[in-house]
């Protein structure tokens, strides 16, 4: 089964060996996670803005299943 990497649109073989599926590599996985983080960060509500001083963004997110 071939899927498209959501980050770089490269064709990726979906297999048990590919631990980063549906991404082609760890790099693309991290880019995608970063994109989501930026998306959240870019749209602060007024309430969240008031708490921004105390807000500590997580450097790395681990996705383990
Ligand atoms: Zn990729």
From TrEMBL:
A single BP term in Gene Ontology: regulation of DNA-templated transcription
Cofactor note: Binds 1 zinc ion.
Keyword Zinc: yes
Classification via Gene3D superfamilies: Erythroid Transcription Factor GATA-1, subunit A
InterPro entries assigned to the protein according to its UniProt record, in alphabetical order: DNA_gyrase_inhibitor_YacG, Znf_NHR/GATA
Annotated Zn(2+) binding sites: 5, 8, 24, 28
Gene Ontology terms, MF aspect: DNA topoisomerase type II (double strand cut, ATP-hydrolyzing) inhibitor activity; zinc ion binding
Coiled-coil residues: none
Cofactor: Zn(2+)
Pfam families cross-referenced by the UniProt entry: YacG
Role of this protein: Inhibits all the catalytic activities of DNA gyrase by preventing its interaction with DNA. Acts by binding directly to the C-terminal domain of GyrB, which probably disrupts DNA binding by the gyrase.
HAMAP family hit by this protein: DNA_gyrase_inhibitor_YacG
Record's subunit section: Interacts with GyrB.
PANTHER family: DNA GYRASE INHIBITOR YACG
Protein name stated in the entry: DNA gyrase inhibitor YacG
Organism expressing this protein natively: Marinobacter lutaoensis
Gene: yacG
